[in-house]
Amino acid sequence: MEATEKIIKAFEDAAKPMRPGEAAEMAGLEKKDAEKAIKKLKDQGVLFSPKRCYYDLQK
């Protein structure tokens, strides 16, 4: 499974906005790898930032 897929699954399971470190822990990834995946997903419009330093899935 790719890092972006793991991040999406982590956000689906959490069902709440999370910081990159929390998402990395839930996805079983290194924090820097999770941050890269989150940035990529944010640029694609899959994730958004409801408040500073937190991310969530677009509804």
Which descriptors apply to this entry?
single chain; 59 residues; mainly alpha; Arc Repressor Mutant, subunit A; two-stranded antiparallel ribbon; 2 strands; globular
Set down the secondary structure blueprint.
Elements: H1 3-14, H2 20-27, H3 31-44, E1 47-48, E2 56-57
Antiparallel strand pairs: 1-2
Describe the protein:
Helices cover 58% and strands 7% of the residues. With 59 residues, the protein is mostly helical. It has one domain: Winged helix-like DNA-binding domain superfamily/Winged helix DNA-binding domain (Arc Repressor Mutant, subunit A, Orthogonal Bundle). It has a two-stranded antiparallel ribbon with strand order 1-2. A hairpin with a 7-residue loop joins strand 1 and strand 2. The termini are far apart. 24% of the residues are buried. The model has no long low-confidence stretch (mean pLDDT 96).
